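hi! just following up on the protien thing from before. the input was this:
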Amino acid sequence: MIVMQDVRIGTAFVMDGNGYVALKSEFSKSGRNAAVMKLKIKNLLTNQISEGVYKAADKVEEINLDLRPMQYSYNDGNDYVFMDMESFEQVEIPVEQLGDTIFFLEDNMEIEIAFYEGRAVTVKLPINIVREITETEPGIKGDTSGKSMKRAKIASGYELMVPLFCEIGTKIKIDTRDGSYVERVK
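and the predicted 3d structure came back as:
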């Protein structure tokens, strides 16, 4: 058993007899009110996404998902196909189930896929990935503070905010948990 306060992005747990995985997790404590967790969760079997506010002290049972190393093969339009690195078995996961994860996948990328009751439910990406900027406004010389931001796009079409000094062709590190810029890669 874990308390709701310990639920982070990617944590799988049982609540009300159903299995869920946390997509977003935010702790909140204000004034006299009790501490609460604002969660965006996905039902592991139905893929239904819901949001709610829960008491931070509530207890839930943590689920240990079966993680298997796999390699991203291709997208056939409706499904993303992954290959098991040991048995060479292929697993298909629908686009809707992957969400924003699709923007960070690359051909032949090695990742982990979580299985719940024998069914592939989610993809576990590395925390940081390196991608090249394909579209952005021209950079401003001399601004290396990183506090002013502008919109940029990577090859997959994903848009994020980057510092003004980043230009087309700049390699950047992206946090896959929230899709944010981390740093420029030399």
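Residues 111 and 125 are 6 Å apart (CA to CA).
The mean pLDDT is 87.
cheers
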